Amino acid sequence: MMHRKTDWETRLAAYLEPLRALPFEWGRHDCCTFAAGAVEAMTGIDPMPEFRGRYRTAIGSARALKRFGAGTLEATLDTKFERIAASLAQRGDIVMSQGSLGLAWGAHMIAVGSEGAREGLVRIARAAWIDPIAWRVQLGG
Questions:
Q1: What domains, with CATH codes, occur in the chain?
Q2: CA 80, CA 130: separation in Å to the nearest integer?
Q3: Do residues 104 and 90 make contact, with C-beta atoms less than 8 angstroms apart?
Q4: In angstroms, rounded to a whole number, what is the distance separating the alpha carbons of residues 92 and 73?
Q5: Most buried residue among 79, 98, 105, 115 by CB atoms closer than 10 A?
Q6: How many whole angstroms from its chain centre is CA 120?
Q7: Distances from the Cα of 130 to the Cαs of 65, 89, 99, 117, 134, in angstroms?
Q8: Rama region for 123: left / alpha / beta (φ>0; ψ in -120 to 50; rest)
Q9: Which residues, including other chains, have CB under 8 Å from residue 57's CB and lie 6 or more apart?
Q10: How does strand 94-97 pair with strand 118-125?
Q11: Where are the beta strands (DSSP E) in the chain?
């Protein structure tokens, strides 16, 4: 089981910093690779190694989920993490809003996206989350 390391906050900050202005790219810097990388930074374990290097397009992503996952991103995450109510998501937990993954971060979610012409990591207010689902990234252990 994956548990956050005692210095998870420092590890997560170091992971996020170089991604702030990195544009979205399927299979390299998309919602799945971003969330999996964050979990790896916090726990030392990559929760999605079977998907690394397996797709480069939206269609490829859907095919990879069917071939290597549980059919959908949501179902695949259910096999790897404990699902929790989105209202209970704490900083560092995984959140899905409108089908895209990000990290709970206080009153926001950090996700890969764009704001105007700027691409990279964006903050989405909890009030703007659409049909949110969340998964706990376990503390200590």
A1: 8-136 (3.90.1720.10)
A2: 22
A3: yes
A4: 18
A5: 105
A6: 14
A7: 22, 14, 9, 23, 12
A8: beta
A9: 26, 27
A10: unpaired
A11: 82-84, 94-97, 100-105, 108-115, 118-125, 133-136
Joined tokens for residue 85: 């109510």
- Written as one letter, the residue type at 83 is R
Tokens of 20: 């702030």
